[in-house]
């Protein structure tokens, strides 16, 4: 077992003598399996910064239950969350991590009509450092599309998700944008609104990456890895904890003293992060 997620376990396996990751869903999570498989099968989904899907399958377990398998490329470094907890990085390497997640998300969000092929714009809806994997070259891929949604093309809403709450109130509590916590996602412009929710989470991921950057803590030790808001709400925040912190009090993870120096790079970094996690979704 190399990981456990909301929908089941991830195992390391081998297929034609090469290592693969196998994500196993129980019958109860069949809808997430179907959704994730359908997202990976969207035309033109192959991209350097999106996890590589190999095949989806279903089988009956020894005790007669159905389970569903997604076979993916294996990324030995594991999640960005795990990677950051084990490694610090210099400025260039930190930028490489951040830039590659950004490229993956930008590609996901882009509608591409190319000849006979059509890739809709897609929102991830559960972007966080556990759902980003690190490749051997120090760049990232985005994975875990079980909650993702096509935003353009003929089928906007997933079956059974016609109600607004199901569209807007999903994701990992720690990374939920203020408008998601308030139940106030602007569904009149669903495409922009759901992209803005992803952008908020991206800002938190940037903070996590650069808080482990050696060059941003000159002459002092880099702080231990923390998930966004870990100082404020610990390891298991409730929905209400995040509502108070993010929506009502408008708090965000703190920039450290070491980032007070006024170099252009640090200033640009802070401005970029603040633009991503802006309280006003339209401003992101």
TrEMBL record:
It is a single-pass type I membrane protein. PANTHER family: BONE MORPHOGENETIC PROTEIN RECEPTOR TYPE-2, TRANSFORMING GROWTH FACTOR-BETA RECEPTOR TYPE I AND II. This is receptor protein serine/threonine kinase. One of its GO terms (biological process) is blood vessel development. Its main location: membrane. One of its GO terms (molecular function) is ATP binding. Residues 1-284 form the Protein kinase domain. Pfam families: Pkinase. Its EC number is 2.7.11.30. The keyword Lipid metabolism does not apply. The keyword Transit peptide does not apply. It comes from the Eukaryota. ATP binds at residue 23. The gene is BMPR2. Belongs to the protein kinase superfamily. TKL Ser/Thr protein kinase family. TGFB receptor subfamily.
């Amino acid at each position: 077992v190399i990981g456990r997620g909301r929908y089941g376990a991830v195992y390391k396996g081998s297929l034609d003598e090469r290592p693969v990751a196998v994500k196993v869903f129980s019958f109860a999570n069949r809808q997430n399996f179907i959704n994730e498989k359908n997202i990976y099968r969207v035309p033109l989904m192959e991209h350097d910064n999106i996890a590589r899907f190999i095949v989806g399958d279903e089988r009956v377990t020894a005790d007669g239950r159905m389970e569903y398998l997604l076979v993916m490329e294996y990324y030995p470094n594991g999640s960005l969350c795990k990677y950051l907890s084990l490694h610090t990085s210099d400025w260039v390497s930190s930028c490489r991590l951040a830039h590659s997640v950004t490229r993956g998300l930008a590609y996901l969000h882009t509608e591409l009509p190319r000849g006979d092929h059509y890739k809709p714009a897609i929102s991830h809806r559960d972007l966080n450092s556990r759902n980003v994997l690190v490749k051997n070259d120090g760049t990232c891929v985005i994975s875990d599309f079980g909650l993702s949604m096509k935003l353009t093309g003929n089928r906007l809403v997933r079956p059974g998700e016609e109600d607004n709450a199901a569209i807007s109130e999903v994701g990992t509590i720690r990374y939920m944008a203020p408008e998601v916590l308030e139940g106030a996602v602007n569904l009149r412009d669903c495409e922009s609104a759901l992209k803005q929710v992803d952008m908020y989470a991206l800002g938190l991921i940037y903070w996590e990456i650069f808080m482990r950057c050696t060059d941003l803590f000159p002459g002092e030790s880099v702080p231990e890895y923390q998930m966004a808001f870990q100082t404020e709400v610990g390891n298991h925040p409730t929905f209400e904890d995040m509502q108070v912190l993010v929506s009502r009090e408008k708090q965000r993870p703190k920039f450290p003293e070491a980032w007070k120096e006024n170099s252009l790079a640090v200033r640009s970094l802070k401005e970029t992060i603040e633009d991503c996690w802006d309280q006003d979704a339209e401003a992101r």
